[in-house]
Amino acid sequence: MPLPVELYLENCVDDFSLIPPETWENWFQEWLEILNDYLPTALSYEVSLRLTTDTEIQTLNSQYREQDKPTDVLAFASLEANLPQSEEMLRSMPLYLGDIIVSVDTAQRQAQQQEHSLSTELAWLTAHGLLHLLGWDHPDERSLMEMLHQQVILLEKIGMSINLEV
Q: Got the DSSP string for the chain?
């Protein structure tokens, strides 16, 4: 049985309908099934995905990470490791995992560099953001390779493949 997930999709890019909302919802359901061991127990989950421009993501990157430049993906986890969740709360409302923001401008450039489709790059970056929401990080080469390997697994689950040349 798939894990229920509510996706809040904000598309801030003009005429961008490459990936329909239903497809994104299906992808998140499949990804959360794979990542079940990393999920706090809840009846359902919520995630916010915002597809935006380099200009907006640069503003956010500067404001929250003190890096005044565009980036490909930002993830803002709403969960804290030691945040207590009451049983009643977990049974009555979805657990909000956080926000993923992807720059479509940067994704387009990276897709061209990697010689794959924009939809593949968007899925790749969103999967990366989702892993960050669940506590994954890459402070060193070994953890980066583990995270990238997990992203490959997530993309394979939705029928996409990506060539990792790291």
A: -PPPEEEEEEE-STT--SS-HHHHHHHHHHHHHHTGGGSPP-S-EEEEEEEE-HHHHHHHHHHHHS--S--SEEEEE---TT----HHHHHHSPEEEEEEEEEHHHHHHHHHHHTS-HHHHHHHHHHHHHHHHTT---SSHHHHHHHHHHHHHHHHHTT-------
